[in-house]
Amino acid sequence: MSNLKGTEKYISENLLFNNIDNKLVSEISELVRYEEIYCDEELFSHFDCQSGIIIFTEGVVKWKVIDVNGEERIIKYFGKSDSIVVDRVLDLFDGPQTFEVVQPVKAIYISKDIIEKISDEQPLFRLNLLGMVSRKADEFESRAGKLVNTPVKERMLESIKELIEKFGLNDSKQLRIPMTKKDMCQLLSASKSSVNRLIQEFQTKNLMEFQRNKLLIKDSNKIQNYWEVLES
Amino acid sequence: MKKPFVIPECANCSSRADSVFTDLDASQTEELSNQKGCNYYKKGQTVFFEGNNSHGIYCVHKGKLKLHKLGTEGKEQIIRFAKDGDILGYRALLSGESFAASATVLEDSSLCYIPKDSLIKLITEDPSFSMKVLELTCKEMGRAADTITNLAQKPVRERLAEVLLMLKEVFGLDEEGTILVQLSREELANIVGTATESVIRLLSELKKEGTIELKGKKIAIKNEQELIHICNLYE
User: Fold this and answer.
1) Which pLDDT tens digit goes with each residue over B154-189?
2) Which of A192, B80, B153, B222 gives a 20 to 30 Å CA spacing to A134?
3) How far apart are CA B121 and CA B21, in angstroms?
4) What's phi and psi for B222, nearest 5 deg?
5) For chain A, what is the domain count?
6) Cα dist from B49 to A18, A148, B46, B100, B183, whole Å
7) Residue B205: alpha-carbon gap to chain centroid
8) List of domains in chain B
9) Is the domain of A15 the same as that of A79?
């Protein structure tokens, strides 16, 4: 079992372990499993688990599901410091799911046995876990509501803003994660024609541009205040 | 003369069996009952507002509510509903964030208010209660997940059929098959994600087909199998 230098630091900094006894965190860091997973590999082909918690310390994972029409939809991009409660996530959707590594991942896996032990001994951990799952439930409900009621243009600007906030831009002002037009369609649950039309519009307004598998952000200030773009 | 409002005791609450508090022991139930308050809300009143901070949670003793957010151009987005035994506002409390949605009563309702400390105490002292809350959160997340991959991907007519079935599942039917909640056409359009005019037209179509019956705001399901067929639930 390999171990990542600084495992204890990553665990203690994760919100799940907020205010948890340092001695316990130290013990847990000796028991967890650490994995490195490379691009185009499937996350769970390495972990081969149906329960426990995965904490990402590096890299990006694209979570996709198949919808009722057989189309792929991107649910979320996981990045540094994100966590997955495995059994809860795998049970969330009826259709097939994939967790594709888009940038090499380093992650810590904490098994269900360890989680149960911590839950029993540390009431604060139970609270932290509920806090984390509550935040995710709010995120999902917000997304679901917007999907039904919000125009694609607004959802696209909002999604790009959130991706910039989460992953940042490189020195060339490109979004740090790979992003194709197809990815954008899958993320927004929108048609190719709608997304192409919007990309054309945003390009004309000098906001952004797709460059192969990268999204160049030309005016990040306008995207931060995207409601002004909607009003124009 | 109108009967005065009596604050219900948790031990005798008719909604308890449907709530996360159902398995609390006698002393926990008594403590909860002593610490909680209870208020009566008239139809249309808002219990809490999106963006405000949470200092406690609400348990629906009797009534029906909608949870809604403010969307584009001030348009209301109905997220979900609550009925007898459901708890509200707990996710804001546990995540430490503000209320993600507002809660408004759809009919005269009574809700019990449970202070933050009482809920935190139950979670930290009772692992099985904590598990129940986790299950509830995951169930709500699952419904949202279903909307993302299922409801939101369907044509409007199928979405309307599925929403009618969802309302039936949440609120039930009376002896005549009428869904036990009254929503305006605008509210219905909001949940389905379409214009009010479209919902009016589609309801009229379903009525002509004999699938539903309309009595003002009330909707009676006459042919449930046909609704299931329309929304391709099992196909």
Assistant:
1) 899 999 999 999 999 999 999 999 999 999 999 999
2) B153
3) 13
4) -100, -30
5) 2
6) 28, 22, 7, 9, 20
7) 27
8) 12-149 (2.60.120.10), 155-230 (1.10.10.10)
9) yes
Q: What is d(CA A102, CA A44) in angstroms, rounded to the nearest whole number?
A: 14
**ipTM score:** 0.91
Total-model pTM: 0.91
Tokens of A91: 């049970």
Do A130 and B134 lie within an 8 Å CB cutoff? yes
| Tens-digit pLDDT profile for residues A155-195 | 999 999 999 999 999 999 999 999 999 999 999 999 999 99
CATH code of the domain in which A46 resides: 2.60.120.10
What separation in angstroms does the CA of A138 have from each of A74, A78, A141, A160, B60?
A: 18, 17, 5, 19, 20
Residue partners of B79: CB distance under 8 A and separation at least 6? A141, A144, A145, B67, B68, B69, B100, B101, B144
Question: B204 vs B75, B186, B223, CA distance in Å?
Answer: 24, 15, 15
Closest Cα to residue A135, out of B102, B126, B109, B141?
Answer: B141
Flag whether A2 is in a domain. Answer: no
- Determine if residue A212 is left, alpha or beta; phi over 0 gives left, psi from -120 to 50 gives alpha, anything else beta: left
Cα angle A52-B80-A94, degrees, rounded to a multiple of 5? 45
Q: Can you spell out the DSSP letters for A76-131? A: EEE-TT-EEEHHHHHTT-SS-EEEEEEEEEEEEEE-HHHHHHHHHH-HHHHHHHHH
B87, B95, B102: best to mutate for the A interface, most A CBs within 10 A:
B95
Q: Which domain-ending residue is among A97, A112, A147?
A: A147
Q: Which residue of A has its CA nearest to B130?
A: A126
Q: Cβ A130–B94 below 8 Å, yes or no?
A: yes
CB contact under 8 A, A189 and B120: no
